[in-house]
Design goal:
With 463 residues, the protein is of the alpha/beta class. Among the domains are: 2-68; 349-462, Aspartate Aminotransferase, domain 1, CATH 3.90.1150.170. The protein is 43% helix and 13% strand. It contains 15 helices and eleven strands. The protein has helices spanning 2-17, 30-37, 48-59, 81-93, 104-120, 135-150, 168-176, 197-209, 232-242, 279-282, 297-304, 335-346, 348-370, 397-413, 441-462; strands at 128-132, 158-163, 184-187, 213-220, 245-250, 274-277, 290-294, 375-377, 385-390, 420-424, 427-433. It has a seven-stranded mixed sheet with strand order 1-7-6-5-4-2-3, with helices on both faces. Strands 8-9-11-10 form a four-stranded antiparallel sheet. A hairpin with a 7-residue loop joins β8 (375-377) and β9 (385-390). α4 (81-93) crosses α12, α6 (135-150) crosses α7 and α6 (135-150) crosses α11 (297-304). The termini are far apart. The structure holds pyridoxal-5'-phosphate. The site of pyridoxal-5'-phosphate has 14 residues, from α6.
Length: 463
């Protein structure tokens, strides 16, 4: 065991310490590689070393280098090393944390970690939550709670409202929870990518006139496209007066609740009926760590409570937490341990400082990028993500889109930072998202420099 573990740890540490030198994304012919990898099930074993060779030299490099300090694409996260060690402990001890009785003290650690999230988000006592595989499954559980509260068994007339900037997982989650896509209203966002209140009110009124049953608004605390935060406080007011469930998608942005600088932008987040968080983004956990908080914890339990002849009775469900009574899983991994160990090891202040730093880096990056020639900032960084595009006198929209696309690719090709774009507001925008714990001022310098060179190359040849 020790020899196997030492071999693996040595490889992992070597990998992490050389991250900045590794390519930011795979460059080989991925289709041929994948075809060449198909094989029948092996009848006999292979030595560990040779399996690790393939993994670390061939397969791992053919991927987005998401834990790299220069990864500013999509929504970064990073993957804190102690969280992986917590998983190692969880997997080797292999205790059963699906039900409280099987490992009460371990489940209490998970309950503590959920309580800490509650505290950071300023949710009230009585909130309950559940760790999920990601934001998508957290949102599914939120739709389920809203549906049960407002629709009961008659779910077909129920309608959900959100903006057209919403993450596509909301439409998938709604469908999983029995709310079909024709009952999800994706209202066109305003010029700054926010859910417009007037259009939201009109859509609700129209559906009521048509005999449908509005029951839920999903607002964004940081969209994936541009980082926009909807007017959460106003939407919370509307949901109170219209008797609707207010879910906030904080998969990208919720952890900015830890940061003083973004308090105003996120005002109202703490009034939500439920909140999606993605610790594998804003808390730098390894992938597979999502979370949901539900303000009225009894709603979450009601959606999942179940008994069976082979299950022991829970002694006092109001006092103790049982994961299987708050989510769809029974047997499961132990996500609570990676959260608990990491938070205990570093302390909340370290996470707050890291989030503050990412926010400051994004503000600095936006300021400097806006000064580059031909750049138009489409929106300021409300949290740590901002969109921009290129323009020059006489450029058509198609030319601007092509140039912006080319500049994004050209910048990433330089190998120091990776950035990605998105379609938003009728055009292609470049975007920068700062959220890896490994990203510091040095990467922002690299970004501004490489983007500047790329713009000169691309616009010089197009304009
Ligand atoms: C990432 C993301 C999601 C989906 O979460 P997963 O963890 O990928 O399932 C939902 N909403 C937003 C805003 C996101 O950034």
């Amino acid at each position: 065991m020790r020899a196997m573990a030492d071999t693996v740890v040595a490889r992992c540490v070597e990998h992490i310490t050389t991250l900045p030198q590794q390519p930011l994304y795979g460059v080989c012919d991925a289709e041929s590689l994948c075809r060449s990898m198909r094989e029948p099930s092996p009848a006999v074993g292979t030595p560990l070393e040779s399996l690790l060779d393939d993994l670390f030299s061939t397969y791992i490099p053919q991927s987005f280098n998401t834990p790299s300090p220069g990864y500013l694409a999509y929504i970064p996260g990073g993957g804190l090393f102690p969280a992986a060690l917590a998983d190692f402990i969880a997997d080797t001890t292999n205790r059963y944390t699906g039900i409280w009785q099987a490992a009460p003290a371990l489940v209490q650690l998970e309950a503590n970690a959920l309580e800490w999230l509650r505290e950071w988000m300023h949710f009230p006592a009585g909130t309950r939550g559940v760790f999920t595989t990601g934001g998508s499954m957290a949102t599914f559980n939120a739709v389920l709670c809203a549906r049960e509260q407002y629709l009961g068994a008659d779910i077909r007339p129920g309608v959900i409202y959100t903006s057209d900037q919403v993450h596509h997982c909301v439409i998938k989650s709604a469908k999983l929870a029995g709310i079909m896509p024709d009952r999800v209203r994706c209202i066109p966002a305003d010029a700054q990518f926010h859910l417009p209140m007037g259009a939201l009110r009109d859509a609700i009124a129209k559906d009521r006139r048509d005999g449908l049953v509005p029951f839920m608004v999903v607002s964004n605390a940081g969209t994936t496209n541009t980082g926009a935060v909807d007017p959460l406080d106003e939407i919370a007011d509307l949901c109170v007066s219209e008797l609707l469930w207010h879910h906030v998608d904080g998969a990208y942005g919720a952890f900015f609740q830890l940061c003083d600088d973004t308090r105003d932008v996120l005002r109202g987040l703490d009034r939500a009926d439920s909140l999606t968080l993605d610790p594998h983004k804003g808390m730098f956990m390894p992938y597979g760590t999502g979370a949901l908080l539900v303000r009225d914890g009894a709603r979450l339990r009601a959606a999942h409570e179940a008994t069976a002849g082979y299950l022991p009775e829970m002694p006092s469900p109001d006092d103790f937490y049982d994961p299987s009574q708050h989510g769809p899983d029974l047997s499961r991994g132990f996500p609570g341990l990676r959260m608990w160990l990491t938070i205990k090891l570093y302390g909340a202040d370290a996470f707050r400082a890291a989030i503050d730093e990412k926010r400051a880096l994004a503000v600095d990056a936006a300021r400097r990028i806006a000064l580059l020639p031909h750049v138009v900032l489409d929106a300021p960084p409300e949290l740590s993500l901002f969109p921009f595009h290129l323009t020059w006198p006489g450029a058509t929209l198609a030319q601007e889109d092509a140039a912006t696309r080319e500049v994004m690719a050209n910048t990433s090709k330089r190998g120091r930072v990776m950035i990605s774009g998105a379609s938003a507001g009728g055009r292609y925008v470049g975007r920068v998202c700062v959220l890896s714990f490994r990203t510091h001022a040095r990467q922002i310098d690299d970004l501004v420099e490489d983007l500047g060179h790329a713009i000169r190359d691309v616009v010089g040849s197009m304009a």
